[in-house]
Amino acid sequence: MRNALFAALAALSTGCGSTLTIRHLDATNRSAEVVVNGQNKGMLTYGESFEMPLEPGRYQLKVTAPGKSTSPWHPDVDTIDVMLEDDATLTLQPPRPR
After folding, report:
1. Separation CA 41–CA 80 (nearest Å)
2. pLDDT at residue 32 is higher than 90
3. How far apart, in whole angstroms, are the C-alpha atoms of residue 69 and residue 15?
4. CATH of domain 2-92
């Protein structure tokens, strides 16, 4: 599955500019589904990370547990709006207790 995710992300790449890295470091939520600009890009499991080369600009990220519509990492927000100008890293960590 990881190779499929890399292939999908490579297809999104337009060549130069910035890199968005997503790291999954949350053992309490073993898998994450990654959606970029409304397109499902695949799954990332605990301990994995990937780099996505992107042109600078605005992107919408949605990272959820498989089969869920809300995210354990950002439950109050449906999607994360990202303005990418330089390299950036999104790290999925265990949610803080409320």
Report:
1. 15
2. yes
3. 31
4. 2.60.40
